[in-house]
Amino acid sequence: VLDEGVAWIMTDLLKSVVTNGIASSAYVKNVQSGGKTGTTNDQYDIWFDGFTPTYAGSLWIGTDNNIAMASMSGPAAALWGRIMRQIDAACTGSYRDRPSNVINVGGEWYTSGTEKGKSTYIDDEKKKKEEEEAKKKAEEEAQRIAQLIADIDTYMDENGCSLQDACEHYGVTVEYYKSNGGTREEPSPDPPDPSGGGGTTP
Fold it and tell me: Which of 68, 88, 124, 149 is 20 to 30 A from 41 in CA distance terms?
């Protein structure tokens, strides 16, 4: 059993996977959901393990024959959210208040006493290496998102579908698409027939 402070911090971290991560489509009504996506080597298995204040559930997509999935874990998160949104009891309740032994130091949560283990002095070489690694990860994430946006655009062109359908296919919301540089809009309805259609001939 986890210390209540550790449990609260972990819950807060996992909520951010939905609010700020690739699992944005795992949202539910009225309450904040949280969870973790997962993808095995060669994309043979994808899943999302998630929770709300009252429900927890794990969703796996894969085969018995190690057939690679067409995408990573976004669709698993989307399907999990779609199922949970249909369970009224899963969309209610509240999380426990922050325990008294959880403190915030430098914008990070700690249980009391563990913040003392936080290193105050970092040598220049180590700091430079960490900055380079962070930059590399940021560039890789930007490339991944750019490719995702391009894939959604291509999917719309090839299938003649709506932006909503294309985003759902890739396990993201339209809001996520647009907030990350997507420029497509929903197709405009066909203009009315200027002849009026069905009119009588004078």
Answer: 149
